[in-house]
Amino acid sequence: MQSIDHIAFSYDRAALRPRILHIGFGAFARAHQLVYLNEALAKGGDWGVVACRLNSGQAELDALDAADHLYHVIEADDHCITARQIGAVCATLHPKRDGTDRLLAQIAQSDLAIISLTITEKGYTLRDGHLDLQHPGVAADLAAPEAPSTAIGVIVAGLAQRRAAGLGGLAIMSCDNLPHNGEMARRAVMEFARQRDRGLANWIDSKVTFPSTMIDRIVPALDSDALDLIERATGKRDENSIVAEPFRQWVIEDSFAAGRPAWEEAGAQIVPDVGPYEDMKLRMLNGAHSFLACLGTLSGHRTIADCMNDAGLKRAARRLMIGEQAPTLRPVAGIDLSGYADDLIARFGNSRLHHQTRQIATDSSAKLPQRLIAPAAQHLAADEDCPLTFLGIAAWLRYVRVTVEAGDLLPDPLERELRQIVQDRADGPEFVAAMLALSQVFPAELANDPRFTRPVVAAYALLSLGNINTAITQTCE
Question: What pTM did the predictor assign?
């Protein structure tokens, strides 16, 4: 049995001030951003976090309150286990429990310097790169701006109160796994503010910064095995705590209007441009994750670690990373992409995590454009082949078909459209063509390019035969 190292926080919690409001305080925030802050606070500072959820999650925040805001992150792989106690949370907020007025007042507190976000792509309420004015939540928030319900509406209403109080600006820091996440946050906030009040928009433009970040840590959803490990490590079955892999990385654009914690003291990289790092991670790690999630599910593999025990899938994932994803990247200082790929394969094989393939396949229509479709377009622009990328895209199409026909859940922003296509189109090229016509996923120039459509149709036909390893072998020939 592996020994367990215990690391308690080592700072005075009474000295913490509510300087960061984190909206979307779920498993990833607990296991990533809060770990960095926890370690930075050991070197000094008063950067306390107010943990906020806007819709679901009230029970989780109540449980965190009952535990005096203390929890553990269990960092585990097949070689070591570390139980790290986190003490950086100083309060929680939920509008359905505490009232929206209290949430907005928190944004207008003089101590607050950062609003950080893990709200997923849907939380930014963008469509085609701009604020979706037809979104029911956006329309309602613009009609009643003092009683917002969306994350963007809440932020803008809080900033309006901050401006009215004569306070300075702050930073709005997206920590979502999305390309150019700072710019995404800025566009959503600025376009909402312009709809509401031009003067407010001008104030935000001059006072508020939107740093981009690249985040990396595998944090699977809690299951019974994870809860057993937490109980073994902490002595209690604690659903406030979370299990994560030992590896973590955080790259942060240094653009903070009102200061920031010394995250670099905890190993974060503070850089002028996050772009090359986020491209590397989104394509090599997340692209391979989506590739494995769909192909692994079709193969009957429940977890990513199970996929790594499948020699064909493991070999294909690394070949995708090195042969097709890495060539689309800008150079990243200090990074050997071959070594990075080897490290990813090792991380994927961590049997402690139980990172479910179906969990990773969630919301794939929003994930694949950055992870697989953009690299495919780049290869075609250079007149290069990318057969494994085509296979990964076809695997998602097949995953959708099989999932819907089995009557299983299909958590996806386009669930209604996807189910309708499966219902209306016969399996085969007709179905593939209808899927590739989804403008929310596939750019028209690709959907109308036979250099793209033909190999995807061919890959789908291979996968339809049912032997995934045969499809992989033929693709790699």
Answer: 0.89
